Amino acid sequence: MNNKLRVDDIINLEIKRIGINGEGIGFYKRQAVFVLNAIPKDIVKVRITSDFDNYVKAEIIEFIKRDSNHVVPACPYYGKCGGCQLQHVKYEYQGVLKREHLIECIERYSSINPRKFEIKPTIMMDNPFGYRNKSSLPVRNNGKKNVMGIYEADSNRIVYVDDCLIHNDQINYVNKKILEFMEELNIRAYSEKFNGGIVKYIVTRISTFNNEIQVTIILHEKSSKIYKLAEKIMSLDNVVSVYEDFNEKTGQGIIFGKSLKKLAGKDTITEKLDKISFELLPNAFFQLNPIQTVKLYNEVKKACKLSRKETVIDAYCGVGTIGMWLANMAKEVIGIELNREAVESANMTAKKLKIKNIHFYNDDVNVKLPALIKDGLLPDVVVFDPPRTGLDAKTMDLIMKIEPKRIVYVSCNPSSLAKDLNILDEKYKINYIQPIDMFPMTSHVECVCQLSLKTEMKHIDKNNIKNK
Asked: Is pTM, for the whole model, over 0.85?
């Protein structure tokens, strides 16, 4: 007899845990059921809406029992736009759910027992709204007017958002004024239906250090009207630079093109984390939540256990933020990053701050690190802050060969972290993991994991570390 659930089936369900996208997950005869706006301990009557090979999705018909950690979402767009997933949950409890999700990922994607080491309580924010210092929003023409918004979850449809509660208030204001200026100048936004129009995205970044605002207009078609638009944008309080770029590609995900050009104002804006300041170009990567970034980097420094005698590798270093954060407690810091613009920015910042014990290389980690080892470098600590996919096979193989005393792994994806820890567990002891809430109201969780070599470091045959 086939007990598999089908679309339009109605069942009662107890929610057991939270999924990677913030959905409640329950089980019906061992089949996973994903339910939006449900949390653990809810008992709900649901209707199956989608049927997949290994799971189904469902919508709530009624709450039979609602857990006390539910709240009414503060945002009027919640449930429509795909920006937040957890506004229906008390903020304090969001941290509990994120820690539990981390534990579940380790249990699911590794053979490691997460109860054999410490997984600390999630570090939360005092104010979980208005924290994002950058917006990258699509601008579209809906047939009647230009609108700006956020993509609906799992969709190409855009939900028009007038004020985003997790964006800085000044960003919301500037974005609304840009739409007004576009109407005044008769600048038509991009239309996916006709694959035409001028403005495709607006990228707005604010410095939480001095309130400088930098705007980048991403164009689908060239227009002389953009210079007038830039002039109007520069008239807004705190706007100090306007850039343009071109992106003729369709679909989500890729915003910047390769034709970045300054139209008005300063080259960069200055952001500051604690005592370290950074000069940011529009396409430079920088953490979106400066308040939590300071907490994150302090946790990285704590995990490195530096005593001014260590050589530190900052792999995938970006604009060098972590490396510069560690430099005053290390003998030497070496940053490796494939993105040329990021390395240029890192070198510029290090020179400005007169940090003399840090060096940045524009290269592939799997090429530069073996070359450095062959030249005599033996790193004491390696800090990894990889993309969501985690460490690739070459990097993993390399790190298992060179055996640094400590690894500090900064992860934005508990699933890939768990898979990588499963490999590192052969030689490394997991001392603890510290989750940090970098993106309140969303399902994302950042982690700092401290690992130490299980045995005394062996002699490394430098000739065996091939420069691949």
From this structure: yes
Q: Kindly list the domain boundaries of the chain, sorted by start residue.
A: 1-68, 100-125+289-464, 134-272
At 3 the pLDDT is 72
Over residues 431-444, mean pLDDT: 97
d(CA 260, CA 442): 31
Q: 1-68: what fold?
A: OB fold (Dihydrolipoamide Acetyltransferase, E2P) (2.40.50)
Q: Distances from the Cα of 252 to the Cαs of 40, 155, 255, 260, in angstroms?
A: 32, 10, 8, 19
**393-436 pLDDT tens trace:** 999 999 998 899 999 999 999 999 999 999 999 999 999 999 99
CATH 2.40.50.1070 fits domain 134-272: yes
What is the set of active-site residues?
412
